[in-house]
Amino acid sequence: MTNDHGQQPSHTLTRRELLKLAGVGAGELLLRPELAHASGEVDAENAAAMLYDATKCVGCRACEVACKEWNDLPLEAELPSDTTAHTWTLIKQYQGESSESFRKYQCMHCLDPACVSVCTVGALSKTEDGPVVYDTSKCIGCRYCQYACPFGVPKFEWENPLGLIGKCTFCADRLADGLIPACAEACPAGALTFGTRKQMLKEARKRIEQNPNRYIDHIYGETEGGGTSVLFLSDIPFEKLGLPVLESAPVTHASVMVANATPVTFATAAVLFSGIYWLTKRRNEGLKEKED
Amino acid sequence: MAMTALTIEFKKLSTTGKIVLGILAILTTLGLVTGIYRLLTGLGTTTALSDSYPWGLWLGFDFTLIAFGGAAFTMAMVVHLFNLEKYESVLRPAILTGFLGYVSVLVILLIDLGRPDRFWGFIPYANLHSPLFEICWCILLYTIVLTLEIAPLIFERLKQPKIMRVLHAAIIPVTVVGVVLSTCHQSTLGTMFLALPERTHPLWWSWLLPLLYYFSAIGLGLSATILVVLIGSKAIGREPEVDVLAGLGKISVWVWVIYLVFRIGDLVFTGDLGYVFALDSKSTLFWIEILLMAIAPIVLYSMRDVRQSKSGLFWTSLFVFLGVGFNRFDAMFSGMPPTNMEATYFPSFIEFAVQFGVLAAAALAWYLAARLLPIFEEG
Predict the structure, then answer these.
(1) Region of residue B288 (phi > 0: left; psi between -120 and 50: alpha; otherwise: beta)
(2) What local confidence, expressed as pLDDT, does residue B292 receive?
(3) How far B238 CA lies from chain A's nearest CA (Å)?
(4) How many CA atoms lie within 13 A of A194 on its CB side?
(5) Structure confidence by residue, pLDDT tens digits, A264-280
(6) Sheet holding A192-196, edge to edge
(7) How close A283 gets to chain B, by Cα (Å)?
(8) Which of A12, B159, B250, B305 has its C-alpha lying 20 to 30 A from A189's C-alpha?
(9) Would strands A230-233 and A48-53 be described as parallel, antiparallel, or unpaired?
(10) Pair type for strands A132-134 and A124-126
(11) Residues A72-91: pLDDT tens digits?
(12) How far is B379 from chain A (nearest CA, A)?
């Protein structure tokens, strides 16, 4: 279980590619229109993505500072050990078997995000450009997104009587102006590379091929939870970096399937219970006639 | 006039009765004060909730109370849709319980929201994929249905035959709408956890969750009716309809048999049965809830002597209540936070105070309604 990543071939077909090859892509879209709808799947590969190479990260935290500055986030009273509603990215150090490694915490900007799927009011959404963004004006503070995110990304302003969620926006405002995310721009070690998802996957594969001894033979985020826009390369197993082992189906695929069936549930229940009423009423009338 | 009648009734109360009412009044006041304090100061200062445990005691009680309030739709279904007239005498207590249960849930949800000032947010802003969006709408609409179902009691007391006739004519369509809405949101509470496979232990995660939550809401609905009729009768000094309640116990047996077949069958089918016998804390919790919510009613309600006695009915229905409560809380706390895994959660004093305050207020309202309205009289 701990290291089955290592055995995977460097280029695995994603579930979607497989389905498309099998000629059932249209069927897939019919069955699960939300995939295309929620993530703008059609062009996910050409939307913004970022590659974090843990082997290049030196832990200088320039990304944290740049994030705070660009997003105008208040400083914390004491250094947090985890991201918070006001600290959207954080570098942590992890111990592998023989070496140490850094890991950058931030929103993974999933292609089919669980937070977007469960958000009661649609305050969270995945944009065509790639970022998962949050509309502060819609949020009611139910915190379902916090429970649903497998990476524990959305954080809440607990000290605010009218608290909201805080999370990395992939610097959506910078992307719109043709800039790259503040953290990627600030990184002096070349650990953060920005581009389209297609380019980042290609780049990651190239690095693994050129340095097979340096990397675990897996790109984290290529398939996890339906794929993410932030991809990871590492020399120690990804679980050791605190990254969850996820299936290739989107985290909320089961609930979305049931939610899509809601109109059917409503109609079935309405017909069923009206029918039961009609039948038992006739039965009772029949019984009464017999008694008379 | 009603007030003088109440004063007379209150004077006739036993010392125990007065003490119980006094405690409920104190808890209600404490809940009101702490609830307002929470709204003014925020969740961080008043609760033990955190980014690792964003949901706690309040949400757990909401899930349990919605199933408890299932008494209303279950009994409306039994009486009006299955046309089992025998049970009409306990329909009104069940409807009242549903109404007060749902109002309590709405109050707690409001206090639990990060932005209580935007509680209406789900009306203009929709996310059709969100189980919680569907639940919000169903609960809003179903509370309106419950109000329509409660209304006849008030207009009967106010002697308004015209309004009574209109409400009476609407009973069947209103009941069908109520049962359909309940079917949807009770099962969607299961879908809420279906969306959390990474945060829910396999013993509490299954594709059948919507079905399991629905059947357990019917099961608790039946036992909740037994419980409130027994306690309500005691409170106002009347004899409960033990024969009728025994019939509900008998129906319960079948509901819990179906539940158990689905719950265990699913674990066998998915190969997760091993967790049941893992002898760790999760399997212990699983056994506690299964014993209380399913095995206890199947065994005890099957015994004629038990279901024909007040104490037998009381304890069995209390076990079901506790078991379903365990089930809803277990599911919520069964998984690990994705980061900061060593974090723990235990509710703060204010969380308890607000929760018990709302429950005490509901109990007081139930008592007053039973005194003032024709709750225990057939319409």
Answers:
(1) alpha
(2) 98
(3) 31
(4) 18
(5) 999 999 999 999 999 99
(6) A192-196, A48-53, A230-233
(7) 9
(8) A12
(9) parallel
(10) antiparallel
(11) 999 998 889 999 999 999 99
(12) 19
Does B270 reach chain A within 8 Å, measured CB to CB? no
Q: Which of B266, B259, B257 is nearest to B207 (CA)?
A: B266
B40, pLDDT greater than 60: yes
The answer to whether the beta carbons of residues B175 and A274 sit under 8 Å apart is no
A195-225 residues labelled b (16+ CB within 10 A) or e (exposed): bbbeebbebbbebbeeeeeebbebbbbbbbb
Contact A14, A148 (CB under 8 A): no
pLDDT at residue number A29: 39
Q: Does B115 touch chain A (CB under 8 A)?
A: yes
Q: In the structure encoding, which two tokens stand for residue A156, read together?
A: 């809440």
Average pLDDT over residues B113-139: 95
Residue B173 touches chain A, beta carbons under 8 Å: no
Say whether residue B339 is in contact with chain A using an 8 A CB cutoff: yes
**Residue type for position A214:** R
Distance in angstroms (rounded) separating the CA atoms of residues B198 and A113: 13
CATH code, A212: 3.30.70.20
Are B195 and A246 a contacting pair at CB < 8 A?
no
Beta strands in chain A, from DSSP E residues, in sequence order: 48-53, 90-95, 100-105, 124-126, 132-134, 155-156, 165-166, 192-196, 230-233
Q: Tell me the CATH number for domain B58-337.
A: 1.20.1630.10
Q: What is the mean pLDDT of chain B?
A: 94
List Cβ neighbours of B296 (8 Å cut-off, separation of 6 or more). Answer: B316, B319, B320, B323
| Domains identified in chain A, total number | 1
**According to the model, what pLDDT value does residue B378 have?**
55
Averaging pLDDT over each range in B12-16, B301-305, B339-343, which range is the top one?
Answer: B301-305
Whether chain A has a CB inside 8 Å of the CB on B194: the answer is: yes
* Residues 345 through 364 of chain B touching chain A, CB cutoff 8 Å: none
B-proximal residues of A, 91-150, CB under 8 Å = 105, 114, 117-123, 138-144, 146-150
**For residue A36, is it within any domain?**
yes
Is residue A189 assigned to a domain?
yes
As a whole number, mean pLDDT of residues B123-141 equals 95
Q: Print the domain residue range for A250.
A: 4-260
Flag whether pLDDT at B211 surpasses 80. Answer: yes
Dihedrals phi, psi of A90, to nearest 5 degrees: -155, 140
Nearest-CA distance from A84 to chain B in Å?
8
- A243: in domain: yes
Per-domain residue ranges of chain B: 17-46, 58-337
Q: How far is CA B275 from CA A247, B6, B41, B194, B285, in A?
A: 21, 54, 42, 19, 11
Contact by Cβ (8 Å): A237, A96: yes
Which residues in chain A have Cβ-Cβ distances shorter than 8 Å to B180? Answer: 266, 269-270, 273
Q: How close, in Å, is residue A61 to chain B by CA atoms?
A: 19
Q: What is the pTM of this model?
A: 0.90
Structure tokens at A120: 């009661």
Report the distance separating Cα A35 and Cα A52, nearest Å: 26
Reported ipTM: the value is 0.93
Q: Does A287 fall in a domain?
A: no
Angle at B66 between CA B61 and CA B71, to 5 degrees: 130
* Digit-coded pLDDT (tens) for B279-301: 899 999 999 999 999 999 999 99
B residues 218-247 closer than 8 Å to A (CB): none
**pLDDT tens across B54-105, in order?**
999 999 999 999 999 999 999 999 999 999 999 999 999 999 999 999 999 9
